[in-house]
């Protein structure tokens, strides 16, 4: 339970921050050197958005408390409804409103039972 | 599609009618693009408020000062890794472990950097350095899907419009969380706005079998691996998803741009 002294905390913060910046900057500068993304890598990169977005979304819906849960999982149900809305409307706002309203409503119903 | 910097507007032409969003399909002004970015990030900002408050409150609870908390948010600016670092600081863990933990959790940013880089390579280096500093899950996801769907968008303006307000909100929430604590009414699940936004971006990003495979494998593995340390589930899922996309492409061919199987692009007019 002992926090290290302030100067050492800052050393860690700065090193971690510089390292994180280098991770972020990596290809933004590397591709310039090699004249753009190599074709094979570019093909792979086309699948990053779908793969990453799903890897961010699905656990948030299917395992909101850190364990995959189907039964009694309000977020999964609200998310499924929101996915339907997203597919039909292609509207971010409509998707958020539908998902939020559904989740709050499910919580209210569950709380009342 | 190989797009060598110039002429990004040709991709969806030809097949079907292009996505019917506004009449300004060719190019958008920088102001307009900036505002589009701000609008796109607005719901996400609402969603990260609880998270930002926690980033501030947890730091103080772990024995760090307000300045340390703000330092983490300004210097590192990556929520999940900040919370992990705070936990380790509080346990008195070796500082090298803190640094390594932060960097491993943030490895996924390399993937975003590679994915967004082709869109931003024409920008000056100083500006790319700023974009790098501001790169987050959210700024990446909003921008990469926007550039795909509306190639006429001014890249740097939209990116800045999406990324900068998020940065500012994160800093403000950190301070409030550190000073006041993190209290959000439990019946108001603001944090849910973030996955919902990603969901709304994911659905149109699935354009056929190959991208569907990428999403299915990415989402599935990330969920199975949700308990793994260092956010490894996210990284493993994303990489495996990309491989699944490539594999599917090798078997059935790439997704037809703009012409998915059961007309997923046919939204409202």
UniProtKB/TrEMBL annotation, chain A:
UniProt keyword annotations, A-Z: Membrane, Transmembrane, Transmembrane helix
InterPro entries in the record: Brnchd-chn_aa_trnsp_AzlD
Transmembrane segments: 12-32, 44-63, 92-112
Tagged with keyword Transmembrane helix: yes
A Pfam family reported for this protein in Swiss-Prot or TrEMBL: AzlD
Organism: Haloglomus irregulare
Protein's UniProt name: AzlD domain-containing protein
